[in-house]
Input
Amino acid sequence: MQKLKCHSHSDRWTPLDEGAAVSLLRPAPTPQPIRFAADPKSVEADVARCALMIIDMQNDFLSDEGWFATSRNADVSALSNVVSQINALSGAFRKVGSPVIHINWAVRPDAANLPANVLDKGSDCGARPGYGDQIASGRVLVDGDWGAQSVPAIDKGEDDIAVGKTRLTGFRDNELDSILRRLGVATLFFTGVNLDRCVFATLADGCFNGFDAVLVEDATTTVSPPHVTDAILYLIRLLYGFTAKSEDILAALSTQPQIGEKS
Output
């Protein structure tokens, strides 16, 4: 699992007087406001405090040889349709210096920390392979195995951050919350699969933890029926945050100076 590079942000102590003293002052980042169309209202956000969340774009979900297609009889053909939008967003976020975070299932080989509700819902009470079980392509969503790896089509930058998860939510029993707070992030942009499962669970938990939430509508999808998507979008707009289109977010980000440019 990739670790956060301490030099990738400004939250460090500063030596003073040739090492005889230390400054604990943290410089506040200069606000970089953007504004874009969203539902139910347009949104203004600070690029300096935003992060892009890419959730579960993994072989076991998107590949025809993966767990979803072979063991859960899911039609995964539409899941790859969001790859180009996610890559466009991640490239734009990197250019303005905002973190890009890949949040993927990463199960222990022995699944020792997974409760019964996760194991048995994932395997239909043992009737078919579930988390950590062996299938033709390998062990299901086991950390380091093929199924848990991001699909090759998803772009990854050198400074992207990878966080493993063992629940539908990306905020349970891992370091995600600590990383976001260390980076000074306030607003999360959500992409990936499946909208009604891990994306929504992570978005809801992020809101419960005090983060702002923007779901990028055309950069997330699900194998569930269309009415499920309608219900999730309704709930997000009503109770949690905002939904927006990638083209509007990209247009807003394009107004900001890129890394190495002067504002």
Summary: DSSP finds eight helices and twelve strands in the chain.
